């Protein structure tokens, strides 16, 4: 068990630790599971701690907990290990004016703050989870209690899109390409749930829509939609589609626009920057810019 914690990034290690402590307390009957899970009416009422505890809750010390910790390490751990606020998501109209010393200073700051930047990203995803699950409850009456598992699945999807061809070892039994990992987890849950199988057969044969009243089905629908949203917006749309990686071409374009008096704003990139760039970077960029 001690080997499990080796080389685990700090945020993921803290999250896994809180999940393990919660599981131990539940197994020892020091706290009740029902007091920690996400119930919108209670969370938005006086029991606000559920917004936090629902991301750390587990049913107790069991094989299921070990699998949850394994998923945390292979999803959140890998995303955190490769996560960094790089220059592709920062405003190029500021970055392109930096000299080499300023670039080095910025890179040092980004490397030093990887953990807090990743935590900020997790908080953003968590807020989208709370909003989605609350809407699901108030609109359809379907409730998802464990938000931590939902966050873990979103990060699993995020990592599978970032590194689709990397192989993952499943308990030493077999290997699987990461791009298929989220779908394999969903398939295992379907196999284990007789209700989902029956509802799916009714949907195919009779057109019975009770399949979409199952919370497990919505669990994977939400995790896939949110996982794709956060990956697509940050890793593809902001970092690639709306960013030119060639410095000379960006500089030539800026000079040409200035020569003809054209002021152009990429509204999509601007919106995504304000969404993804942690707020302290705007202060740091201003300070680095003034250091000549």
Relevant terms:
DER1, membrane, 65% helix, 2 strands, 292 residues, mainly alpha, endoplasmic reticulum
Largest sheet composition? 2 strands, antiparallel
How many H/I helical runs?
A: 15
Average of the residue pLDDT scores: 88
- CA gyration radius, whole angstroms: 22 Å
- Helix/strand class: mainly alpha
Helix percent reads 55-70%
Q: What percent strand? A: under 5%
- Shape descriptor reads globular
Task: Give the end-to-end Cα distance, rounded to a whole number of Å.
Answer: 51 Å
- How many separate domains? 1
The spatial strand order of the largest sheet comes to 1-2
Instruction: Point out poorly predicted stretches.
Output: none
Order of helices and strands: HHHHHHHHHEEHHHHHH
- The number of E-state strands comes to 2
Pfam families: DER1
Family: Belongs to the derlin family.
Protein name: Derlin
GO cellular component, one term: endoplasmic reticulum membrane
């Amino acid at each position: 068990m001690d080997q499990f914690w080796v080389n685990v990034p700090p945020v993921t290690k803290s999250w896994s630790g809180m999940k393990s402590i919660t599981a131990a307390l539940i197994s020892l009957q020091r706290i009740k599971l029902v007091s920690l899970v996400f119930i919108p009416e209670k969370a938005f009422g006086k029991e606000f701690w559920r917004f936090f505890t629902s991301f750390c809750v587990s049913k107790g010390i069991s094989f299921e907990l070990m699998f949850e910790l394994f998923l945390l390490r292979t999803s959140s751990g890998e995303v955190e290990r490769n996560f960094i606020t790089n220059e592709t998501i920062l405003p190029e109209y500021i970055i392109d004016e930096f000299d080499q010393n300023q670039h080095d200073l910025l890179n040092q700051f980004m490397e030093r703050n990887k953990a807090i930047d990743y935590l900020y990203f997790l908080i953003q995803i968590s807020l989208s989870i709370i909003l989605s699950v609350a809407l699901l409850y108030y609109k359809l009456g379907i409730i998802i209690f464990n938000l931590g598992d939902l966050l873990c699945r979103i990060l699993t999807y995020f990592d599978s899109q970032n590194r689709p061809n990397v192989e993952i070892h499943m308990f030493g039994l077999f290997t699987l390409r990461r791009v298929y990992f989220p779908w394999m987890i969903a398939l295992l849950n379907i196999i284990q749930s007789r209700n989902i199988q029956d509802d799916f057969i009714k949907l195919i044969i009779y057109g019975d829509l009770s399949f979409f009243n199952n919370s497990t089905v919505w669990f994977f629908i939400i995790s896939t939609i949110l996982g794709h949203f956060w990956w697509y917006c940050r890793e593809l749309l902001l970092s690639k589609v709306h960013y030119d990686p060639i410095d000379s071409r960006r500089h030539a374009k800026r000079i040409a626009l200035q020569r003809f008096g054209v002021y152009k704003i990429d509204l999509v990139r601007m919106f995504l920057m304000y969404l993804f760039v942690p707020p302290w970077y705007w202060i740091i960029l201003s300070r680095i810019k003034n250091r000549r």
